[in-house]
């Protein structure tokens, strides 16, 4: 009987893994099935653009998979039985057996962090959330306020994109940190502050948002800020599926893997992308990013193919090349980094940075997701 590989999740990590697995193992008795909640590939790195009112390209997964032997199953996996080695989609009827599972279920917004966020806040972590925010923004009259909570990369991109596309709105950006862009070299940080200033974004550093209301936010120091929409953007959390299945996870629920991305508790399971706590070059757990997801997806395909054909595989190297921040469509900061994610001195800013980021995002879909042979497993994605 053929060896059944199931890849759970067709994001950056899962789609590239499935395609590369199919190619690596074409001549072997192996089936590769990709299960995904929707029939489209979601360019998550563009969801702040969707929220701001821009159109995004529709990328059907069947088109992405055409010419490959990968079988696509559309459905949401609700449980994994590690004894029977099955993934179950909603009801007992839709069950798939695996011999090897590649878990690539990605991440979601952290709307459970403070009271009121789940009920009242918006997010940009999924297309549904970004679309809901887009509709809300369209309802707000000129002079209205949008509060973005969290000034990590997604918060910065969302605040700038909304401010650029809706100049009549006042965007407030809240962060508990002392400043924005702390991971950038000084020139990048200065450019970032100037760009936010030019876009009219008010920055509220050292401000901890404690709760969200239907018309604003309350902060730890007792202040209340009115807002017509609140965007919760304090980072991502992973779904509970992996923990519920019994895989060894870190405190945040990301699957613990060895240097070959194999689960430390279940050797027939591998984990990639946001869902996995892979060790990056610095020794730190991989950052939730495309930069980590793509090399993990390709790397796991090489590891699994090697093991199934009787070879041993080396570690998958998760290194970084740059941090790429869009500040609207005409501005940005590209911070070049060492493989361990520490900033180098070199920074690209302004229109050149915006064009650079756009080119990288496009080429990720055009070539990066093909799962083709890569020269290095280092990042270099958006
Ligand atoms: C607005 C925004 C901007 C970003 N900008 C950048 C950036 O500039 N650079 C960068 O490196 N990163 C960026 N990121 C982060 C990046 O998008 C993620 O790190 C990346 O998407 C992770 O890839 P992944 O394959 O692990 O997961 P995902 O891309 O989230 O894919 C997971 C897939 O699994 C599917 N899935 C989940 N659960 C199930 C289930 N139970 N059953 C079936 N299918 C399921 C989902 O539908 C999805 O298709 C950004 C994210 C956002 C939201």
What is the CATH domain class of the largest domain? Alpha Beta
CATH topology of the largest domain: FAD/NAD(P)-binding domain
- Give the proportion of residues in helices: 25-40%
Q: What is the CA-CA span between the terminal residues?
A: 40 Å
- Taking Cα atoms only, what radius of gyration do you get, to the nearest Å? 21 Å
Q: Report the major sheet.
A: 5 strands, parallel
Q: Which hetero compounds are present in the coordinates?
A: flavin-adenine dinucleotide
CATH superfamily of the largest domain: FAD/NAD(P)-binding domain
Defining traits:
five-stranded parallel sheet; 382 residues; globular; alpha/beta; FAD/NAD(P)-binding domain; 22 strands; binds flavin-adenine dinucleotide
Would you give an account of this structure?
The chain is an alpha/beta fold and 382 residues long. The chain has 2 domains: 3-107 and 238-319, FAD/NAD(P)-binding domain (3-Layer(bba) Sandwich), CATH 3.50.50.60; 109-232, FAD/NAD(P)-binding domain, CATH 3.50.50.60. Helix content is 28%, strand content 23%. The chain has 10 helices and 22 strands. The strands form 7 sheets. A 5-stranded parallel sheet has the order 3-2-1-7-18. The structure holds flavin-adenine dinucleotide (FAD).
């Amino acid at each position: 009987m053929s060896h059944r590989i199931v890849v759970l999740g067709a994001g950056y990590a899962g789609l590239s893994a499935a395609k590369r697995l199919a190619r690596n193992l074409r001549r072997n008795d192996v089936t590769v099935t990709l299960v995904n909640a929707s029939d489209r590939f979601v360019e998550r790195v563009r969801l702040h653009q969707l929220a701001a009112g821009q159109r995004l390209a529709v990328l059907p997964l069947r088109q992405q998979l055409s010419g490959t032997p990968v079988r696509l199953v559309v459905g949401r996996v609700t449980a994994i039985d590690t004894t029977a080695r099955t993934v179950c989609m909603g009801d007992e009827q839709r069950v798939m057996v695996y011999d090897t599972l590649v878990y690539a279920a990605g991440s979601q917004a952290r709307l459970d962090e403070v009271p009121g966020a789940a009920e009242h806040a918006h997010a940009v972590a999924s297309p549904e959330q970004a679309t809901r925010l887009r509709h809300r923004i369209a309802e707000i009259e000129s002079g209205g306020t949008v509060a973005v909570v969290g000034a990590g990369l997604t918060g910065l991109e969302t605040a700038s994109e909304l401010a650029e596309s809706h100049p009549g709105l006042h965007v407030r950006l809240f962060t508990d940190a002392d400043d924005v862009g702390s991971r950038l070299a000084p020139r990048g940080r200065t450019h970032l502050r100037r760009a936010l200033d030019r876009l009219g974004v008010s920055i509220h550093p050292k401000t901890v948002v404690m709760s969200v209301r239907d018309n604003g936010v309350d902060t730890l120091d007792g202040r209340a800020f009115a807002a017509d929409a609140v965007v919760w953007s304090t980072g991502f959390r992973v779904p509970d599926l992996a923990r519920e299945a019994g895989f060894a996870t870190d405190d945040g629920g990301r699957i613990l893997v060895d240097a070959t991305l194999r689960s430390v508790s279940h050797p027939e399971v591998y984990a990639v992308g946001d869902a996995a706590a892979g060790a990056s070059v610095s020794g730190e757990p991989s950052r939730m990013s495309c930069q980590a997801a793509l090399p993990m997806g390709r790397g796991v395909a090489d590891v699994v193919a090697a093991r199934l054909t009787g070879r041993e595989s080396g570690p998958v190297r998760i290194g970084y090349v740059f941090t790429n921040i869009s500040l609207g469509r005409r501005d940005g900061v590209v911070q070049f980094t060492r493989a361990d994610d520490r900033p180098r001195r070199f920074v690209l800013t302004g229109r050149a940075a915006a064009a650079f980021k756009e080119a990288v995002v496009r080429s990720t879909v055009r070539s990066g997701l093909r799962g083709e042979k890569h020269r290095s497993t280092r990042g270099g994605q958006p």
